[in-house]
Amino acid sequence: MRASARRGLVAAPVAAATAVLALLATAPAQAAPPTPVSAATARAYLADLTVTPEPPRTGYSRGQFPHWAIISGTCNTREIVLQRDGTGVVTNASCAATSGSWYSPYDGATWHAASDVDIDHLVPLAEAWDSGAKTWTLAQRRAFANDLIRPELVAVTDDVNEAKSDQDPGTWLPPLTTYRCTYARAWVQVKHHYGLTVDSREKNALATALAAC
């Protein structure tokens, strides 16, 4: 299915995330976001993506993507990802993580305070806006910003997340080179699922990363 046809099929992961939350009480922490598609599948997805120059950014704000939605009780998406990606995570009555450890796959660092960890939107919100999300409804952008089903949300070192900012793989890849294959597979999966476009430099960088998998 071409990207243009998929654009109207944006899922509603916030609703589905209730089931994820229910599993947290019984399942051991997986210390990782959802496993992305295989390299072979990612290469097929990449070939299917529409390649187009990104237009000048206009009208974007993070408020266009309501994020850290309350999923159940007092638990929002950020806190759920901290529990999912961490080890030995303890939370308080407000669902905030008070202790635990978090391994950042972007740089290989381990942290013991939730304040040292950011939840990265793997495909940044601004990048999504530039590559198609500008035309979505607010509900579709909320679903994207809180997607617990695809490998879009990752607990990582805060400084590394800040260095990445809104860059795509054409200008930024994780400093831990052994994670770049996983990162590229996840990036392509998310863009393919949501019918987002890629620019030529981004596609070339992804192709190179996937060829090394």
UniProtKB/TrEMBL annotation:
Entry superkingdom: Bacteria
InterPro entries associated with the record: GmrSD_C, TAT_signal
Cleaved signal peptide residues: 1-31
GO molecular function, one term: endonuclease activity
Keyword annotations of the record: Endonuclease, Hydrolase, Nuclease, Signal
Residues in GmrSD restriction endonucleases C-terminal domain copies: 114-208
Pfam families reported in the protein's UniProt record: GmrSD_C
Protein name: HNH endonuclease family protein
Species for this entry: Streptomyces thermolineatus
